[in-house]
């Protein structure tokens, strides 16, 4: 009996491999096209992990053309006969895997690569993709555009959440896959290219200047940037010696200056609230891109489509803990990013002469039952087309205010800090956050069950505030 059951179980993967049509490499199969996210099923590839991206790019603002090579150092998480990368609108001329030319095709937003030999599970492999084209943003299910967004003057606003990384480099694009990055961008003299992390070198080569940037902490592809502009650059340090690199479009400089002057203080204040700052650099990219309509928490150096106000600066900086260091496991958990960053704004305002967090909660609660924030649970805001809707942001912040009211300040801030520490440079999901809250407030189990059922998982306007 036992033997037969074991045999039956062992047959399952073999059958799956046969059905998938994998004949090569003794059972190696293609990586699943898509990491399996319910909101963005096509995003990423389930069969390998990218440890490091080395991007060498050249960008010409006058023509809007980008050309480059991407060198991906990856680890196979299964025996891999083929794999895919997300890439939209750019043309690939060559793919080399471990020194041998690989077969490749481009179909929709997928680059499908079949290496000359199958890759064993657990082994490291290097993929070099040579590509070029005129990058254009993708339109998301919510109608917004993200990715490489060329501005009328040729500058680039580059913000890839949720799926725009693929508009400028081949990526395993789901936030489940986080990687280190080295990015070198050649631009004509007079232009500046700004990416994440630290500026490793800046050198002139012929008529170009090459900016080389390094972010060694794990970064989701969506949060990588290579923004090019005629920026005013300023460098500064926080009280604890963290380097701050700001790049500001001259048209926004006057409006941005007083807010950016507060960035070191915001980082210091948030480090007190949330625990140590997770990265080795900070800063801001401020563009003049009013048609974009959003800012993004690009890792270590958020990007703003205009001079930010203090709330937006506090919000994107808070994402460095919640969203960048602790990343989403699934897009439907977006409240773990947006609810937390919104709550950071409430906290900052309350401690800097504004309304209390209780008053912010009351103002949100006063919204009519027909208001958008009651339309979906914070824990699942209604699909990809509603990813950045108010349930994740406002209702998400309300969940945290209720939690604070229920467990008290010491436990509440301990939950936030423990969350940031336990999942630092990794991932978290809603169930894990609920479990942590329960663990740190064992005396409030009943109250927490009710709170999460109503405010986090519940739909509609709760009867009581
Ligand atoms: N996460 C960004 C924020 O802090 C919003 C990104 C919006 N992206 C988009 N494609 N609409 O709030
Ligand atoms: Zn946000």
TrEMBL record:
Residues 305-455 form the Peptidase M1 membrane alanine aminopeptidase domain. Residues 1-22 form the signal peptide. The keyword Signal applies. One of its GO terms (molecular function) is aminopeptidase activity. It catalyses: Release of an N-terminal amino acid, Xaa-|-Yaa- from a peptide, amide or arylamide. Xaa is preferably Ala, but may be most amino acids including Pro (slow action). When a terminal hydrophobic residue is followed by a prolyl residue, the two may be released as an intact Xaa-Pro dipeptide. The keyword Protease applies. It holds the Pfam family Peptidase_M1. Its cofactor is Zn(2+). Its EC number is 3.4.11.2. Keywords: Aminopeptidase, Hydrolase, Metal-binding, Metalloprotease, Protease, Signal, Zinc. Belongs to the peptidase M1 family. This is Aminopeptidase N. It comes from Streptacidiphilus cavernicola.
């Amino acid at each position: 009996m036992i033997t037969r059951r074991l045999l039956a179980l062992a047959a399952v993967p073999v059958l799956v491999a046969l059905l998938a049509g994998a004949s090569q490499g003794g059972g190696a199969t293609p990586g699943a096209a898509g990491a399996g996210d319910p909101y963005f099923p096509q995003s990423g590839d389930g069969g390998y992990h990218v440890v490091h991206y080395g991007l060498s790019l050249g960008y010409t603002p006058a023509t809007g053309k980008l050309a480059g090579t991407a060198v991906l150092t990856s680890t196979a998480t299964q025996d891999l006969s083929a794999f895919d990368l997300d890439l939209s609108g750019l043309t690939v001329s060559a793919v080399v895997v471990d020194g041998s030319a690989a077969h490749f095709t481009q179909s929709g937003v997928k680059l499908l690569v079949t290496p000359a030999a199958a890759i064993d599970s657990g082994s490291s492999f290097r993929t070099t993709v040579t590509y070029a084209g005129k990058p254009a943003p993708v339109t998301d299910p919510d109608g917004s555009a993200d990715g490489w967004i060329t501005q009328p003057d040729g500058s680039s606003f580059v913000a890839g959440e949720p799926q725009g990384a693929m508009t400028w480099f081949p990526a395993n694009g789901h936030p489940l896959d986080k990687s280190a990055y080295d990015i070198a961008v050649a631009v004509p003299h007079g232009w500046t290219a700004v990416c994440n992390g630290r500026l490793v070198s800046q050198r002139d080569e012929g008529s170009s200047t090459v900016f080389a940037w390094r972010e060694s902490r794990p970064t989701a592809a969506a949060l990588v940037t290579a923004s090019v502009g005629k920026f005013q650059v300023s460098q500064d340090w926080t009280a604890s010696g963290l380097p701050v690199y700001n790049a500001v479009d001259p048209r926004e400089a006057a409006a941005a200056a007083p807010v950016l002057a507060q960035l070191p203080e915001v980082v210091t204040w948030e480090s007190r609230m949330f625990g140590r700052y997770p990265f080795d650099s900070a800063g801001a990219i401020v563009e003049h891109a009013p048609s974009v309509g959003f800012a993004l928490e690009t890792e270590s150096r958020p990007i703003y489509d205009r001079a930010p106000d203090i709330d937006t600066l506090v919000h994107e900086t808070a994402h460095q803990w919640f969203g960048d260091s602790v990343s989403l496991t699934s897009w439907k958990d977006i409240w773990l990013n947006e609810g937390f960053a919104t709550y950071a704004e409430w906290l900052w305002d309350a401690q800097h002469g504004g309304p209390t967090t209780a008053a912010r909660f009351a103002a949100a609660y006063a919204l009519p039952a027909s208001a958008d924030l009651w339309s979906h649970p914070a824990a699942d805001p209604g699909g990809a087309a509603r990813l950045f809707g108010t349930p994740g942001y406002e209702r998400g912040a309300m969940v945290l205010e209720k939690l604070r009211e229920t467990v008290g300040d010491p436990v509440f801030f301990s939950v936030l800090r423990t969350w940031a520490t336990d999942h630092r440079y990794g991932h978290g999901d809603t169930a894990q956050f609920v479990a942590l809250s329960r663990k740190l407030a064992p005396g409030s189990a009943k109250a927490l069950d009710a709170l999460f059922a109503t405010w986090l998982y519940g739909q509609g306007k709760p009867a009581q505030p």
